[in-house]
Amino acid sequence: MSTFQAPKGTYDILPADSATVLAVREAISAPLRRAGYGYIETPVFEDVALFSRGVGESTDIVSKEMFTLTKRSSEELALRPEGTASVLRAALQGNLHRIGSLPVKLWYSGSQYRYERPQKGRYRQFWQVGAEAVGVEDPAVDAELIILADDAYRSLGLRNFRILLNSLGDKQCRPVYRAALRDFLAGLDLDDETVRRAELNPLRVLDDKRESVQAQLTGAPRLVDYLCEECKEYHEQVRELLTAAGVGFEDDTKLVRGLDYYTRTTFEFVHDGLGAQSAVGGGGRYDGLSEMIGGPALPSVGWALGVDRTVLALEAEGVVLPTPPAVDVFGVPLGEQARRVLFGAVTALRREGLAADLAYGHKGLKAAMKAADRSGARFALVAGDRDLAEGLVQLKDLTTGDQTPVALDALVATLKEKLK
Description:
Elements: H1 15-34, E1 38-39, E2 45-47, H2 48-54, H3 60-65, E3 77-79, H4 84-93, H5 96-99, E4 104-113, E5 125-134, H6 139-155, E6 161-167, H7 174-186, H8 192-200, H9 203-206, H10 211-214, H11 229-244, E7 250-251, E8 263-271, E9 279-285, H12 289-292, E10 300-306, H13 307-317, E11 329-333, H14 336-351, E12 356-358, H15 365-375, E13 379-383, H16 385-389, E14 392-397, E15 403-407, H17 411-418
Parallel strand pairs: 1-4, 6-7, 11-12, 11-13
Antiparallel strand pairs: 2-3, 4-5, 5-10, 6-8, 8-9, 9-10, 13-14, 14-15
Helix pairs in contact: 1-6, 1-13, 6-11
């Protein structure tokens, strides 16, 4: 055993698990690619101010959970705690909003970092696939993104998830609601930290998971009752588009999520099989974020789905994803000459697009065949001196046990035909 362990709150993705993780990433990104979203990748660290301005000073993410970096310059840097601010920063820096038509559709995949108390489903390094549509205020874009996430989860075989939906209003109607909520919260028995949070952003108190706080929120003003006519109409259009597409959702008037930049549409994907960490993903509209970080007005919407929690949701439902074998063909050489010949054969197969491996380390026949079985290969190539003298190798079907001789010069064509 190594002297060193993975840091607290992190874990290694080993080959036994990586096929599922990769399948989840592929399933989430596939609908996005079909809908015209282009891949974007940003640095794992950014200017601290990008997150304090965009995500919000009052959020736990900025005030408690950001990893800041020790460095040799005067820059204040932090590991990214979420993806949206970084993606929007990159889009602005690259002038993507000026190059082509709007919205600019982007998707990303990568790890985020938050200093949290580790538990199942909550890690200090975690993986997300996210999508952002930048530059258009249109309920159809909001609905499109929710539908694409729903399609992704259903393609994985998940069924026991729910979509929570709400509207947070806009800069016209939300201030009136904030004032009413702040007055309501002032009459509650809250601890000093929650009181400070209520002063900075009273909506954040609605997101407090503590029962002692939630019990006091009965009768709190509902944002839905304060929406202006434009926000009501916008939200109703999102609801109608989702219903027409056959996507079920639940209206949740307390849903605010943990980031300050959301406006209007906000949503969350939850899975009841995960216990306390039930949110597997979520997002919403963030029409003012571009201006917050120094850009022009670019109304936008996006989401991020947690890869780690999606894997846990699959486990909770007992869904096992089909994963292809690591290799199709496994070489079993009997002798030094056979090692050289089969090494060349394996190389040729790989160059023709077939997955192939070889028994290394001078294994005997029994050990080599065990390695072939463990590899998951469909076929084993077995060769000894007598076979090679005749220009042949033995092709063994590891599923049926059938074995047939194949000419070396016809090996690639034969295997390509059999593995169609």
